[in-house]
Amino acid sequence: MNIKVIAVGIYIAFIYWLSLHVSFLDTLFFPALGAFGFLFAARSFHLAEYCKITLGAVVSSLAGTLLYLIYPGTVTLFINVLFAIWLIKRMKWNAPPIVAVAIIPFFSHSPYHVLVPVSVLVSLAGLTALLYAAELIAARWPKTAAAKREQPDMAG
Question: For 43-53, what is the mean pLDDT?
Fold first, then answer.
């Protein structure tokens, strides 16, 4: 199994656990985190691309939060979804989960809606850092194993 996929699974489980046990961190876990994890793990690691997608997620969650705070209704949800889709197309972010994070305030039951954009940023930054580490490990692991096989046996 791919080390990045295992890292994503562990990370999402940890974020879920953390969001359950620390009350003000309840917005840290959101279902789209799994979609971002798969999206990031399925691609080769390019920090600039991950940062662009994270920026898109933060901007759309900020817009969604502001619209929710103005009026938490169907019309603002509709405007929010259209805005998120427009942003994705305009900025060429190629990351549909950005729409999902835009609507978090509309289904979250947290009293801390203003923390949604911060939570999205922290969750995706942590995911990016973890996948960067997994990429480094994966890049060195085969080289280390191959180098050990090529070394002559000194015992005999």
Answer: 89
DSSP string, 112-124: -GGGHHHHHHHHH
Asked if residue 70 belongs to a domain, the reply is: yes
Q: Which domain holds residue 73?
A: 3-137
Q: Can you give the pLDDT at residue 61?
A: 97
- Residue 156 maps to a domain: no
Quote the number of domains for the chain.
Answer: 1
Q: What 3-state DSSP class applies to 46?
A: coil
Please give the Cα distance from 11 to 93 (Å, whole number): 23
Tokens in use for 111? Answer: 């009293």
First-to-last C-alpha distance (Å) of the chain: 35
For 112-129, what is the mean pLDDT? Answer: 94
Q: Does residue 31 surpass a pLDDT of 80?
A: yes
Q: Is residue 148 part of a domain?
A: no
